[in-house]
Amino acid sequence: MPALTEIVAHLDALLRPETIPDYPGALNGLQFENSGTVTRVAAAVDFSLDAIRAAARDGANLLIVHHGMFWGGPQRWTGLPRRRLQLLVEHDIAVYASHIPLDLHAEFGNNVLLAAELGLRPGETFGEYQGMRIGVRGFDDLATDTLVQRAAAFVAPLGGTVRTTRVPPGRRTRHWAMVTGAGASADSIRESLALGVDTLIVGEGAHHTAVEANDLELVIIYAGHYATETVGVRALAAHLHERFAVPWSFLDLPTGM
To answer: How far apart are CA 38 and CA 99, in angstroms?
Structure first.
């Protein structure tokens, strides 16, 4: 039965949360401690009441999430935040969050793992954020429709739906880039153009990104924010099972996004 401090030290060394910039609300690392030991790990994309309840049903006392307790910024411990905190205390559940450190990780990252799920071979990084590159890119040669079908097959069991910008008949993908989550932005489109990327794979993006992509003949595959960020937390929990012999489960709680 490993100590929480031992597991947290291992995760911190692996993910380097103190050295990787992120959004202020991410607050990567241990966000809430339990009484000190870990007997079972649960992984979820988002911290929520549903995630806490599901972790408690599974008997987990460490919850690993991608979007943590303070994602919406500072908050008063009243109403919903109080109910969440009360459940954590009642069920002795610790919370560890990892956002960009997990997105860009070379082994357990959302981007490298999703690329593998889609049969793609990343060779370069992509998607700059405060001097760090979050995503990946690579060179393959396949029908863009085939790539869309692979993405659809991946997200379907997770309750997701794939949407795309215009895909001309017979079009092929030869240079692709990927940023999971909210990866479609003016910056990612500009970077795609500068690098000669023809297909951008993301979770979601604003409406204007589709308009601009169609004008530029850049195909964007929107595979869902939630679905594209399930792979990292699952891999991290599986790694803790191998390293510390603690059982684990993935809490599949789709958001519809």
So the answer is: 22
Contacts of 20 (CB under 8 A, 6+ apart): 28, 100, 101, 104, 132
Kindly tell me if the per-residue pLDDT of 72 is higher than 90.
no
Q: In what order do the strands lie in the sheet with 94-97?
A: 29-32, 94-97, 62-67, 41-46, 248-250
Inter-residue contact 66 to 235 (CB < 8 Å): no
Is residue 89 very low, low, confident or very high in pLDDT (cuts 50, 70, 90)? very high
How large is the angle between the packed helices 110-117 and 144-155, nearest 10 degrees? 110
Q: How far is 231 from 113, CA to CA, in rounded Å?
A: 6
Taking phi first (over 0 means left), then psi (-120 to 50 degrees means alpha), and beta for anything else, what does residue 127 get? left
Rounded Cα distance between 130 and 86, Å, is 36
CA R_g for the chain: 19
| DSSP class per residue in 151-206 | HHHHHGGGT---EES---TT-EEEEEEEE-SS-BSHHHHHHHHHHT--EEEES-B-
The model's confidence at residue 226, banded by pLDDT at 50, 70 and 90, is very high
Question: What are the backbone dihedrals phi and psi of residue 56, each rounded to the nearest 5 degrees, phi first?
Answer: -65, -40
Closest CA to 201 of 218, 225, 176: 176
DSSP string, 67-133: E-TTTT-S--SSHHHHHHHHHHHHTT-EEEE-SHHHHT-TTT-HHHHHHHHTT----EEEEEETTEE
Task: Measure the CA–CA gap between 247 and 61, rounded to whole angstroms.
Answer: 11
